[in-house]
Fold this protein.
Amino acid sequence: IAGITQAPTSQILAAGRRMTLRCTQDMRHNAMYWYRQDLGLGLRLIHYSNTAGTTGKGEVPDGYSVSRANTDDFPLTLASAVPSQTSVYFCASSDQGELHNEQFFGPGTRLTVL
Amino acid sequence: GQNIDQPTEMTATEGAIVQINCTYQTSGFNGLFWYQQHAGEAPTFLSYNVLDGLEEKGRFSSFLSRSKGYSYLLLKELQMKDSASYLCAPLDSNYQLIWGAGTKLIIKP
């Protein structure tokens, strides 16, 4: 079934630990995105990648890193987690060649940093 | 700066019509999206407008006025399953989506 998968579904993490959130899409979309969503706030872009091999910083990149070694995978790493990174994380992808660049979202990862 | 303004919460009755408004200010403009998000789930695409006017898709319609920086989502024949948050998101000059905080729509029987 085509779509985006994220892992893990949820995670409780001790502050200071390193964590990688995984995201994989099988739609051959060129662009991928990582967002965080906090109560009362809109989705905020962390990092994005317009094509394999390139990445860019979004609105809230500090404390996060990404890589895009191939078209399908776009992992997000928290090098040393802090409680303010407690959030729901959504990965999304889009085909920027399409007329309106619709973004498709994964199911999300709920992360709690204690 | 970039700014999206939409009501935080709205309540409507099953079977009725509701209009959710969105005003925006962005650096450049390449269209506007509406997404639906049920509690605990991912956002899903509802509509896209790039030209002024009304786009109709079944029970849902979306309107855009580029000169006014204004859009609305119109939901007809409301059903209980329409209880969700509705996210307004214009596409800026870099083709990045700028997300509003969303409007939580509560449907009452």
Remarks:
- The CA atoms of residues 15 and 82 of chain A lie 5 Å apart.
